[in-house]
Amino acid sequence: MTSLILNVLTVVHFLAVGGLALYGIHRIWMIYCWRRCARISSAIEPDPEFKKDLSLPAVLPTVTVQLPLYNESLVAGRLIDAVAAFDWPTEKLEIQVLDDSTDNTSRVVDERVACWSARGMDIRAVRRQRRTGYKAGALANGLDRAKGELIALFDADFVPRPDFLRKMVPHFTRPNIGMVQARWGFLNNGYSWLTRLQSLLLSTHFGIEHEVRFRRGLFFNFNGTAGIWRKTAIESAGGWSSDTVTEDLDLSYRAQMAGWRFVYAGDVVVPSELPVTLSDFRRQQERWGKGAIQTARKLLPKLMVSAVPPGVKIEAAAHLLANFCWIFAFTATITLFPVLLNRIGIGVYQIIWFDVPLFLLTGIAVICYYLIYGWRACRRRDLWVLPLLPAASIGLAPFFSLAVIKGLTQKGGVFLRTPKFGITDGIPATFQTTIQTHGIVNLMINLPLLLYSLVPVVFAWHRGTWPAIPFLCFFPLGFCIIMGSDLRELLQVVGKKGTKTA
To answer: What is the pTM of this model?
Structure first.
């Protein structure tokens, strides 16, 4: 019976590793396409008209700028002031502050709205009695009364530059363009190892994934902010929906399935603020992972039977289902020790011809993906955090796996905001102590996994399998990194509460 269980767990382990290898192959394909884009971009443009020089139309369209806010008192004024400074005719610009706040954010909003309204700006706060549908509900509510034929959206942590509309609107001279997405920049990427790592991950998402998907005519998504929609594209695709927690991804796929074309304007960069605590980053990524799987459940069956080209379908499936890799990673972690027990005495040739290629396709391919981009895109000062990626991913995998399972079993859900603090590089670290965490629960989840991950290391040590020990140490290291960050944030919150009590 023991032998049977070990055999089953070994099969499960290598199936999970195989899933990770597929993801690694996809990363290799992305890098290949990205380099090809750089060398012969004209050969793979989705449409030759995208290469035409763009200029503003003779008659400028009316633009409605929507600013969905929920308890963002530290950054609401900064965002409103940035949007009010847009270089766009006042009579052609409407600003909707979609304020669902329950704290003093509303006071900040009213003060800035009154200030800019007195200067002749068409700006107003739009409030609801109930926060039904969360961000999607707020956007839909604002859309019903929007004057503009184009709808620009910005989350609270973004600071668009005055020329944003003048750079983005020319793409809409073609009537089939439904959305134009700008690139995210980062105000605080040098704040900590965590923000540097996020900056590298997100820069690669925009610099490679969006670039490749756009240039090859594949589906890609609106990122929820720093983009402009044609109002009729939103309406014809069915409008904003709250049955997933990633309303932006959901609408993006519905609009493209309806025939609208998207443009990625990678030359337009909108600065934004990255989450500065691990708890905020984890919450954000859990929502993105859960929402992507919810969107896949909702739309992939329809997409697969649609008239969309096969290549677009395959890439859409790879995009929407990528978060399954968290389940693969967690499964591979917890089945590692049974596999070691079951494969005692395997020969060196089996390792060379089977284990090594899998290792190269899983871990090394993904690391090289970010390394190549960071090096080629002159982001070399951020590359020192790259070794932390595989270790931190191990420690985060249990949480993100649970989010994927929720996406498979739940419809919609609570939209948990990611707090923003108005932090830029150089702001003192005390700002991040204002966030509440679930540190004790997170620690209790990872503590038994940390202890379990030490067992293979001890096993290899006693058997004298020295070459395997550095690899096996990555697993407890990952749990230690995440637990250490959780513990530090928990102590900061406790210390802050103690100071207030005193």
So the answer is: 0.91
